[in-house]
Amino acid sequence: MSKGEEKRRISCIVCPLSCVGEVSVAGGLVTGVEGFSCPRGQAYAREEVTAPKRMLTSTVKVTGGRLPLLPVVSRQPLPKDKIRACARCLSTVTVAAPVTEGDVVVADILGLGVDVVASRDLESFQPLAASRA
Ligand code: SF4
């Protein structure tokens, strides 16, 4: 290991094999990747060290729905350091029922190029018909 180089142990989450490897970093740059079984894992490990990303799952408020909250998910992973800001943004959003799974709830959240979509259908609230005497 050269001076100023550090090694980070990374568990790959791309597939169920869960390979564990190491990424060497010096001056913010990746200088080596070891221990991963395939190129997808190597790419994941490089990204995890230099620009980690995560999927965002959350809920937003619903008006006129059978349930008060709608589960939502980001279409692609978002930068890990923007997840909190995106969650705060979603806390201010209210949608109107009915909603269909895949409907865009927030387009291009915080200008990051990723849409947040409904992860289930949500029907409108149907009040029971008043009974007749
Ligand atoms: S390195 Fe490749 S084989 Fe190993 S867990 Fe990651 S994707 Fe799967």
Commentary on this structure:
The protein contains two helices and ten strands; from the N terminus they run βββαββββαβββ. It has two domains: 5-51, no CATH class; 57-118, CPE0013-like fold. The strands form three sheets. A five-stranded mixed beta sheet has the order 8-5-6-10-9, with no helix packed on it. A three-stranded antiparallel beta sheet has the order 1-2-3, with helices on one face. The protein is 15% helix and 35% strand. β1 (5-11) and β2 form a beta hairpin. It is of the alpha+beta class and 133 residues long. The protein has helices spanning 39-50, 83-90; strands spanning 5-11, 20-26, 29-34, 53-54, 57-63, 69-74, 78-79, 94-96, 104-106, 116-118.
CATH topology of the largest domain: CPE0013-like fold
**Small molecules bound in the structure, each named once:** iron/sulfur cluster
Taken as a percent bin, the fraction of beta residues is: 25-35%
CATH architecture of the largest domain: Roll
- Determine the N-to-C terminus distance: 86 Å
Q: Provide the structure class.
A: alpha+beta
Order of SSEs, N→C? EEEHEEEEHEEE
Can you give the mean pLDDT?
A: 94
| Molecular shape | elongated
Helix content: 10-25%
Strands of the widest sheet, in order across it, are 8-5-6-10-9
**Gyration radius over CA:** 21 Å
Can you count the beta strands? Answer: 10
- CATH class wording of the largest domain: Alpha Beta
Largest sheet: 5 strands, mixed
